[in-house]
Amino acid sequence: xxxxxxxxxxxxxxxxxxxxxxxxxxxxxxxxxxxxxxxxxxxxxxxxxxxxxxxxxxxxxxxxxxxxxxxxxxxxxxxxxxxxxxxxxxxxxxxxxxxxxxxxxxxxxxxxxxxxxxxxxxxxxxxxxxxxxxxxxxxxxxxxxxxxxxxxxxxxxxxxxxxxxxxxxxxxxxxxxxxxxxxxxxxxxxxxxxxxxxxxxxxxxxxxxxxxxxxxxxxxxxxxxxxxxxxxxxxxxxxxxxxxxxxxxxxxxxx
Length: 255
Prior knowledge:
Elements: H1 9-64, E1 69-72, E2 77-80, E3 84-86, E4 91-93, E5 99-105, E6 108-111, E7 114-117, E8 120-127, E9 130-136, H2 141-156, H3 158-181, H4 184-198, H5 201-214, H6 219-253
Antiparallel strand pairs: 1-2, 2-3, 3-4, 5-8, 6-7, 8-9
């Protein structure tokens, strides 16, 4: 709102005070908006940190639960995990001191009607839980011995593996709990926002000066000023609406 040569000195003073008030209000709104953004930022950071821990925990579990060995036979597949072995028929927990042995029997011999094959191959597992025998294809002796070795290695370190697993999970859970309970950043941002909202001194002061200046303006001159403001506002928003419509039309035309 620029000054008019027809404006009285009192109206000019009022317009100046009015602009000061509007500027103070805009500055206040900007400060509140910024403080509110800091609260949102703090909350997003908190959620991001929590999700990062949850993701790392999930990845650790997925990696820990992956098979570390597999022995495929025609009738069954035995899978070795860090803490146990299993197939479609059994599951056996690994333990320190368990015995894993490969045994063979029989042979091949020529007969009048062809070759006689009486070979047998087994992986024998002996634990405090009981004994288990895995029947294998005699042609897969090297693979059977390799798999038995893998079981022995995993069993020898199963206590340490289990302790490390528990320690790692406990660490993830402790970090997650601490992160969930720590609201210091959000609290500080919310305190700052409340303080910013409550500090309306600049607006209050500017409003008092504007109202005091307005008391010196005649009713007719003030009414004319308010009508011009209303008209200018309508023109402003009408122009914005036209621009938006033109932008939408252009967007559809060039799609």
